[in-house]
Amino acid sequence: MKIFQILRPLLEIGVVVFAIVFGLRFITSFFSQKSKVYRPTFLRQFYLLFWPLLCLGVGLPNLGFYFYTGHLAPHEAVLLLALSAVLLGFSMPALLLHAQYYAHNLHTTLVFDPKENRLEVYEGRVRIPFRQSELVRVERVTCKSKRLFWSNYDFLRLHLQTGEVLTLTSLLLNLAPLTEFLRNTPLEHRQRWFCWT
């Protein structure tokens, strides 16, 4: 029971912090232009991780309750473990994908403005020079199901004439407008159950 006394104030503080961040972001969105520069931002990451983290927040206390309480009946223990396994089974794949996408695009900056026909990719502060005409093909990988927690995770690979391959993940932005922008380049669309790059 001591663990629940510790977790409750932490969860309350977390909810208050997220409410303040979203409130400020909502208010400032009225006064700012839509950005043309995309990086892995807190808001985009929170959007992708909301349901997996919520599921994990429900599943982990159940597992903690199981391990800290030594007097559960066998059928209660089986039900508690089954519920925790289902909840963790839904959240862990999304967390693994998020970690991999974060490692890929942590230092990536994308400048994308379709109205000005502008597409630039930076790794750190170094611009990767290419023109749209130098793209050999574009590979878009999406999730087969639209109802799983990791369905919003997809990626785009830009194959350049030099042989270099640039991977842009959904951690930067929604990739549908970028794919539409590159419609004149040969596009390979693949679907997988798990979009591991």
Automatic annotation (TrEMBL):
<keyword id="KW-1133">Transmembrane helix</keyword>
<feature type="transmembrane region" description="Helical">
    <location>
        <begin position="79"/>
        <end position="97"/>
    </location>
</feature>
<dbReference type="Pfam" id="PF26566">
    <property type="entry name" value="PH_40"/>
</dbReference>
<dbReference type="InterPro" id="IPR058916">
    <property type="entry name" value="PH_40"/>
</dbReference>
<feature type="transmembrane region" description="Helical">
    <location>
        <begin position="6"/>
        <end position="27"/>
    </location>
</feature>
<protein>
    <recommendedName>
        <fullName>PH domain-containing protein</fullName>
    </recommendedName>
</protein>
<keyword id="KW-0472">Membrane</keyword>
<feature type="transmembrane region" description="Helical">
    <location>
        <begin position="48"/>
        <end position="67"/>
    </location>
</feature>
<keyword id="KW-0812">Transmembrane</keyword>
<feature type="domain" description="PH">
    <location>
        <begin position="37"/>
        <end position="181"/>
    </location>
</feature>
